[in-house]
Amino acid sequence: MTGRWAIVVHGGAKSIDPAQAEANRCGCLAAVAAGQAVLEAGGAAVDAVEAAIRVLEDDPTFNAGRGSVRNAAGDVEMDAALMDGQTLDLGGVAAIRGVRHPITVARLMLREDPVLLVADGARTFAAERGAERCDPPAPMLPGNGAGRGGAGRDTVGCVALDLQGHLAAGTSTGGLEGCAVGRVGDSPLPGCGLYAEDGVGAVSFSGDGEAIARTMLASRVVRGLEGGDPDSAVERALVRLVSLGADGGAIALDGAGRIGWNHNSRNFAVGYVVSGAGDARAFLAKAEEREIGQDAG
Ligand code: GLY
Predict the structure, then answer these.
(1) Taking the CB of the first residue and of the last residue of the chain, which one, N or C, has fewer CB atoms within 10 A?
(2) 20 alpha carbon to ligand 1 midpoint, in Å?
(3) Alpha-carbon torsion 57, 188, 182, 270, what sign?
């Protein structure tokens, strides 16, 4: 037992049009509130992460669930994953169509033997387990993806620490606008788009999925957490991304519930709250947090 809980969400590493600033802040705060309710009630970190990401998936501001961008064929294919830091169980789905909450399908996968199901296999599993359908697929809402001033490849994510000291991480994305059918980015890949391990840390990425996967960035953050603070661990991992000419952002928690986050994209929508440390806060860039001297830890 840590006697402390913490939750951090992100709504994607991207450029945020000023007209979308409030929607990004409010969306992150709503997601934090959903996860906070689970943690305050003594619930599990994996449940808090699922609850928070479901809110983001229902918000068309974000490229996940309802707000997902379309691939080259004009279809919506989504990736999501959830990792339990206590058991190292991982549930992931990729290129899944026709479901409202990919993160909940990932949650249903969590205690199953396979760690990742793709395309028709993922959809069949979702149907067999009664996951909520969403047909026709998520509509292309005005302002989505690149059209909303974002890079069209932003992802949502969450990391949480529960009162029992267990960590969890999750990601969900509509992927890259106009990408090849069946393309899968970093989001459902452990050690790339996410990772969680009790006593060490939890991390969730957004950004250039191919570059994040090639460099296994989540594993780099976790390695950094073993000897340093979460902010520095994220910052060091992002240097590798920069060296590839890619951009992204990450949120992280260490085993004690200290928060770290950063990005090299223009914006990164982030919200967080820690037990006993005041109200939830939301930021659209790390510079905003620094300006007000917020102590995230
Ligand atoms: N980072 C999400 C993606 O590239 O699919």
Answers:
(1) N
(2) 21
(3) positive
| CA 63 to centroid of ligand 1, rounded, Å | 10
Nearest Cα residue to atom 2 of ligand 1: 209
pLDDT at position 150 over 90: no
What is the CB < 6 Å shell around ligand 1?
153, 155, 173, 175-176, 185-187, 206-207, 209
* Closest C-alpha among 214, 273, 282 to residue 248: 214
pLDDT, tens digit, 9 for 90 and up, residues 55-103: 999 999 999 999 999 999 999 999 999 999 999 999 999 999 999 999 9
Whether residue 149 is predicted with pLDDT greater than 60 in this model: the reply is no
What distance in angstroms lies between residue 98's CA and the mean position of ligand 1's atoms? 19
CB 232, CB 220: distance < 8 Å? no
**Which atom of ligand 1 is least distant from the CA of 208?**
4
Residue extents of the structural domains in the chain: 6-291
Least confidently predicted of 5-19, 112-126, 281-295 = 281-295
Closest by Cα among 128, 65, 67 to 99:
65
- Looking from the CA of 174 toward its CB, the CA atoms found within 13 Å total 37
Q: Whole-angstrom Cα distance, residue 204 to residue 261?
A: 10
Pocket test for ligand 1, best of 118, 172, 187, 238 (most atoms within 8 A of CB): 187
Q: How far is CA 204 from the centre of its chain?
A: 5
Rounded CA-CA distance 231/95 in Å is 32
pLDDT at 153: 52
Atom of ligand 1 nearest to the CA of 185: 5
What's the CA-to-centroid distance between 216 and ligand 1, angstroms? Answer: 13
Q: Which residues are catalytic?
A: 155
Q: What percent of the chain has pLDDT over 90?
A: 87
Residue with tokens 């909940």: 104
